[in-house]
Amino acid sequence: MKRLLAAALVAFVAxxxxxxxxxxxxxxxxxxxxxxxxxxxxxxxxxxCYSCYYMASHVLNGKEWDDLNTKIVxxxxxxxxxxxxxxxxxxxxHFLPTYVAIGPDGEELGRILAERPRETFYPExxxxxxxxxxxxxxxxxxxxxxxxxxxxxLDTYQQRYEGKEGMAWFDTLPPMVRNVSDKDKRVALAKQxxxxxxxxxxxxxxxxxxxxxxxxxxxxxxERPYVLDDLVSAxxxxxxxxxxxxxxxxxxxxxxxxxxxxxxASPACADQRSAVLTAADLDAALDDHAAEQAVLRKAIxxxxxxxxxxxxxxxxxxxxxxVYLVRAKAGDELDTLEKQLIAAYPDDYVYNYRYxxxxxxxxxxxxxxxxxxxxxxxxYGANEITVASFRVKALRALHRDDEARxxxxxxxxxxxxxxxxxxxxxxxxxxx
Length: 432
Prior knowledge:
Layout: H1 11-16, H2 26-36, E1 40-45, H3 50-58, H4 62-69, E2 73-78, H5 82-90, E3 98-102, E4 108-113, H6 118-129, H7 135-143, H8 147-159, H9 163-171, H10 175-181, H11 185-202, H12 205-216, H13 224-234, H14 240-247, H15 251-262, H16 272-285, H17 289-307, H18 315-327, H19 331-344, H20 350-361, H21 365-376, H22 381-397, H23 401-415, H24 420-429
Parallel strand pairs: 1-2
Antiparallel strand pairs: 1-3, 3-4
Helix pairs in contact: 3-18, 7-8, 8-9, 8-11, 9-11, 11-12, 12-13, 13-16, 15-16, 16-17, 16-18, 17-18, 18-19, 19-20, 20-21, 20-22, 21-22, 22-23, 22-24, 23-24
């Protein structure tokens, strides 16, 4: 997904999880769960993940969090570390944060994708831990004719990014169940979501447009920004008039979504960033640039109001503000904010890297390189390669090619075995 994307291990995460002295690895966590007859709750996150900032500061703390930790083995998986990234591939995790519950017997109990408000997250976790979301149970209930179970199974496949597998399972249901379930609105919507997943995987714009339009006609709540984003992206190659005719009907329902579920005192949807950026992308696709700027400025002003000048009070909001300023091309405001973010969050590589990268991309290699070098001191794993790639770009722009080659060799030696694809791209950057 584009927003991953869409959102940490830094100060807020450390504070939120300080009371939890967890296992050293996911393998150790699973062994502990089996030994203690407890489920394991895995939090797949990363230091650059804005939705993870939200969960760390707003949800994974307080009494509910303390109570939950007495019932589970908790493991915080870092997407930038080799062993945890291997588990992401094994469990088919594509979105951060993703929370995966594994029973003491090793079977997945279910998963939760993306950030959630506190009042939504804990009931969802409780449902997972009850075993009702276990795929084997859902399938058994579906085969007996439960329409809710059929929809649950299809939704589970969607969460696991297994569109083809989900539709193949549906085809194995008894004809009587299949024929009746097709008339069920929730099942019909779940099938379209799987078809959308398949079309995205195949990069089939026509299939994406067809499935996304049908999904958007349903009651999809906080998923609306992601599905509309698929529709906007897939329609980019259409003639302008045809694209506007396709997208214009989405404008009114999306504005209602923003007004009732995002721009409120207590938002029902926690991922404000995706909601705002999708709105701006929709307006841009409709050539309504005044509306595009208006929604961005509204989000900028709202974020500033809620931060009260304290960037450390809510890292998710602070990082959202940065992205809104990037999208609005508010260069001077962004320069000021990024320097403030570097000062506010000095314990990781992220903001030095982002500011340094932006300077290098703007043709200011000499100004950007010191920030990238500062970022390199805190980088590790996959993000060490990411930082190195822009240091190389800056060094080459400054005609310091020997230093660039030495940096690539050092980085590949340290991280190449664990991250071969990223390491190859870094080596290729020397020849680009």
